[in-house]
Design goal:
The complex is a heterodimer of chains A (about 450) and B (about 450). Chain A contains 21 helices and twelve strands. In chain A, the strands form three sheets. In chain A, strands 1, 2, 3, 6, 11 and 12 form a six-stranded mixed beta sheet that branches. Chain A has two domains: about 230 residues, 3-Layer(aba) Sandwich (D-Maltodextrin-Binding Protein, domain 2); about 210 residues, 3-Layer(aba) Sandwich (D-Maltodextrin-Binding Protein, domain 2), CATH 3.40.190. Chain A has about 450 residues and is of the alpha/beta class. Chain B is α+β, with helices and mostly antiparallel strands and about 450 residues long. Chain B has two domains: about 260 residues, MetI-like fold (Orthogonal Bundle), CATH 1.10.3720; about 120 residues, no CATH class. Chain B has 16 helices and eight strands. Chain B has a five-stranded antiparallel beta sheet, with no helix packed on it. A three-stranded mixed beta sheet of chain B has the order 3-4-7. The longest helix of chain B is centred in the N-terminal third of the chain and has 32 residues. Classes of the chains: A alpha/beta (about 450), B alpha+beta (about 450). At the A-B interface, helix 7, helix 8, helix 12 and helix 20 of A face loops of B.
């Protein structure tokens, strides 16, 4: 929930921070087909409903996208906000016989659950064709379940970004941000020597720690083992997990490298972990979290994105590829009609992505979209990492786990990694607890 | 959950509504209703319907639900959920904490309430004082929780509890000037056992001893001078410099004083030979120090920077850490409920016959004797009511724990009601286990309930 909110606010801030392209969406009207040649059917007189979690500027941004869709097809599309608990909202709507035509789901797990319940309609061949030409197979397959394509990932999140205070790096004499874990540790020590604590960890929020682990694990163990651990086909007592935790312990084990020490980090909530990194004087030089950190920087600190505050991709661990852990929202059709399919087709096209992207605070996984469309350098770089990762990116592991393990305060993975942060030398103990909690949660979820 | 809440609050209502069916009916004169059972039924019906719908039905439903698995009534698990409850380590922690709560919180709140009630009787501004102590009762548990979350904040600039602790601590122990300073890896200094740093090689008079340190932001060294090499060193003395071997923007040769590098003044330096400190010096404004020839003569020494130079700012007490969190939350509970105890006890106190107290005083009893031998025994019934009411209340405690305990220590502060919520709705989504916990909680409340009811009956029959 925290993260949802954080992402929501990100968009607000980035939309405000981005300077260019005011009102760009309305002037690009074309006839029956979009500028990239997507042929949409005539939907005059049809009413469509789209449900998504977005509110405020994020919602305004998306409304521009559907306005353009209405202009192209003649349909009348309305937006329904779902509130934070998307699956409950949609579940009751569907069972009450008032399902929206298209809905955005926040997690692949929900898509699989809905598909299993028979609530989703597979996409038609036109949407599939659009997906195949514009999306990497990794992003396309995230929207599939049981061998059928159901969804279009319209929005992506980049959760492999380390944000840093440029003046702290300058003071320490670090010209180039690190690209490997070894360099990262070395630079951290250099920054510590310069008198600034290098890393801020928002350990009071367990989900920041799961994201740390996921990035290291994805880079070190590779996507295949990552998938196995995600599905709990591999146990948490696996040696690869021990290795990743040991690696994480190289940072967490040195309390002089962590703002407030380990005890302080455990009492630092995510927003504070960002604020203290960009405060004056800074209490830390860098903070790891996803692209939504930009929001907190823009709204809570005086630092300017792109000059005072920059990011570098999460470093590669032990010769692996630099990780890309992602999040995102997938559009699915809940009703079997031409309008819903046409909307999905449109959302899968670069035209829809362009309108959303131009307004800032939005990353599209659409690889056909020209990166120059992004309104500022920070956004462009964030998007570039997502696109460049191709099929090696992985969706946030804890978001795919049962909520009792990967998504609950004071329980499961959150709590176990917090215990690990409190006592980073006890790798085996942490693994034991993780495995016990995972076995219980995955067992209950069936 | 619903069954537990309603059932647990029932005994509190009992004293106010003595019309409990089986309590009062038999004592009525037979002629009134006994002759007309349908009239009795009519009068009882509304109460029975309400009680049935709000108390009996939820309890029954909860008991039945507790025998089924997570996915509704699809899977019958029998006592499985109860086995789960008493083997799960989270629930065991919750049970243990509940025991601490039940013993400590009501006792302390009642004791403090008694003290306040007795003392405020004697002072002129008693009513004003009572008002202030009672005021927290006007706040919801949630708001109180948020207040105490701030009170217990680790940062002394935010949390008043640590502000006080740190303030008192710093009055007696000064923080050092250079917390966090350390030598570069591989420099002439190495960490020593006592937490300070010692030169790896012996130092002899004649060559200036260089003690470079890093890890301090140059901007925080207000008014520090440029570091310098000792200008003139008396023959036979050991001289040297302690300085911040770091240039903003990086670069420079480690271990060499360069322009722009700041001196670390006021650093204590000890000359150590064979484990004994033979001389002590303090660095000057330009970072230089002199260990006089008279004390260092007679062989080489090692230079040591004792730990006192580097002790970090005292961070205060970790109120919400694993060990203290339950006690801290109990503290906030006492803050809230002492007023309740005080007001009830004060009301009881008003009913204590003055003559008895006066008589005792005339007979020469001290105030303590009067309090212990007369006031407390006369107040005993009231004290028991307060205590039992608080015990029932404490068994259900949820809001304070849920709000105050931060994520990492939530499990250390866990109580049954919170565990019930967590397993039913907070991620576990296993309402079977939740219902089992509700039943356990109800069973724990029952003795207190029966005790209260029995007492009221006895009182009435007196």
């Amino acid at each position: 929930m925290n993260r949802r909110l954080a992402i929501g606010i990100t968009t607000v801030a980035l939309a405000m921070a981005s300077t260019a392209c005011g009102g760009g969406g309305s002037s690009t009207a074309a006839g029956g087909a979009t500028s990239s040649g997507v042929k949409l059917p005539d939907l005059h007189g049809q009413h469509l409903q789209v449900a998504a979690v977005w509110t405020g500027p994020e919602q305004q941004n998306f409304l521009k996208v559907i306005q353009q869709f209405d202009k192209l097809t003649g349909a009348q599309t309305s937006f329904v906000p779902t509130g934070d608990d998307v699956s409950t909202f949609l579940g009751t709507k569907i069972q009450g016989g008032a399902a929206p035509d298209v809905a955005f789901l926040p997690q692949p797990g929900v898509l699989a659950q809905f598909a299993k319940a028979g609530w989703l309609k597979p996409v038609n061949s036109a949407v599939d064709k659009e997906l195949s030409s514009n999306y990497s197979s990794g992003w396309k397959n995230l929207g599939a379940s049981g061998g059928k394509q159901y969804g279009v990932y319209f929005k992506a999140a980049n959760k492999s970004t380390v944000w840093y205070n440029t003046s702290a790096f300058q003071t320490a004499g670090i010209a180039q941000p690190p690209t490997t874990w070894a360099e990262f540790l070395k630079d951290a020590q250099t920054i510590s020597d310069s008198g600034t604590t290098p890393v801020s960890v928002g350990g009071a929020d367990g989900w920041t720690l799961t994201d740390w682990f996921e990035n290291i694990y994805l880079s070190q163990a590779g996507p295949d083992l990552y998938d196995k651990l995600t599905k709990h086909q591999n146990k948490w007592t696996d040696p690869s997990v021990a290795k990743a935790l040991t690696t994480l312990g190289q940072l967490f084990g040195k309390s002089s490298l962590i703002a407030g020490g380990n005890r302080g980090a455990l009492q630092t909530e995510f927003p504070t972990s960002v604020d203290q990194t960009f405060a004056n004087p800074p209490k830390a030089a860098m903070v790891y979290e996803g692209d939504f950190v930009a929001t907190n920087i823009a709204s809570d600190t005086k630092a300017k994105l792109g000059t005072d505050a920059k990011f570098f991709p999460f470093p590669a661990v032990d010769g692996g590829k630099a990780p890309l852990v992602s999040g995102g929202d997938v559009a699915v059709a809940l009703k079997d009609n031409a309008g819903a399919q046409a909307l999905l087709q449109y959302l899968a096209s670069p035209d829809a992505a362009r309108i959303a992207v131009q307004q800032g605070g939005f990353i599209s996984p659409d690889k056909a979209l020209d990166l120059s469309v992004y309104p500022n350098a920070t956004q462009r770089a964030l998007a570039q990492s997502v696109i460049q990762a191709g099929d090696t990116f992985r969706f946030d592991m804890s978001d795919q786990a049962p909520a009792a393990f990967g998504g609950t305060k004071g329980q499961g993975e959150w709590k176990d990694l917090q215990d690990f942060l409190a006592n980073p030398s006890d790798v085996a103990g942490a693994q034991g607890k993780l495995e016990a909690d995972a076995a219980k949660a995955y067992g209950n979820a069936g | 959950m619903a069954g537990q809440t309603v059932a647990a609050s029932a005994p509190q209502g009992a004293p106010a509504r003595p019309s409990t069916p089986n309590g009062r009916v038999p004592r009525r004169p037979r002629s009134l209703i006994g002759a007309r059972p349908w009239a009795a039924a009519c009068f009882l019906l509304p109460a029975l319907v309400v009680l049935g719908a709000l108390v009996a039905y939820p309890i029954g439903w909860t008991v039945v639900r507790s025998l089924f698995g997570a996915d509704g009534f699809a899977r019958f698990v029998g006592p499985g959920n109860y086995v789960n409850v008493f083997t799960d380590h989270q629930t065991l922690t919750a049970l243990e904490n509940n025991a601490i709560w039940v013993v400590v919180a009501p006792t302390l709140a009642t004791a403090l309430g008694l003290i306040f009630a007795v003392l405020t009787e004697r002072i002129r501004w008693g009513t004003a004082f009572k008002l202030v102590v009672f005021m927290p009762m006007a706040i919801s548990m949630l708001a109180a929780g948020i207040i105490f979350r701030l009170v217990y904040d680790q940062d002394p600039a935010k949390g008043v509890a640590n502000a006080v602790v740190v303030g008192v601590h710093d009055t007696f122990f000064k923080a050092s000037a250079y917390p966090g300073a350390h030598p570069r890896a591989g420099s002439a200094l190495a960490a020593s056992d006592d937490g300070g740093y010692t030169t790896t090689a012996a130092v002899s008079p004649g060559t200036p001893a260089m003690l470079p340190l890093v890890g301090i932001a140059p901007t925080t060294l207000h008014g520090a001078q440029q570091a310098a090499v000792p200008a003139h060193c008396p023959s036979g003395a050991v001289c040297g410099t302690v300085w911040l071997d770091f240039k903003p923007g990086g670069g420079g040769t480690p271990g060499k004083i360069e322009p722009g590098m700041k001196a670390l003044s006021g650093m204590r330096i000890q000359a150590v030979r064979d484990g004994h400190t033979v001389a002590t010096a303090t660095s000057a404004k330009d970072g230089t120090f002199v260990l006089p020839a008279s004390s260092v003569a007679g062989g080489p020494v090692r230079l040591s920077l004792p730990e006192s130079n580097f002790t970090a700012q005292y961070g205060g007490v970790n109120w919400l850490g694993p060990t203290l969190v339950t006690w801290s939350i109990i503290g906030s509970y006492i803050w809230m409920w002492t007023g309740f105890a005080m007001v009830l006890i004060a009301a009881g106190l008003a009913g204590v016959p003055r003559e008895l107290l006066e008589a005792a005083r005339v007979d020469g009893a001290s105030e303590w004797q009067v309090f212990r031998k007369i006031t407390v025994p006369l107040l005993a019934p009231v004290l028991v009511v307060v205590l039992v009411t608080l015990i029932i209340n404490v068994l259900k405690v949820f809001d304070l724990v849920y709000v105050i305990a931060p994520g990492p220590t939530q499990q250390d502060a866990n109580v049954l009601a919170l565990q019930l919520y967590l397993s039913s709705f907070g991620g576990g989504n296993d309402q079977g286990v939740g219902s089992a916990l509700g039943v356990v909680l109800l069973l724990l409340v029952l003795p207190a309930m029966f005790f209260n009811i029995r007492r009221f009956r006895k009182e009435r029959s007196r």
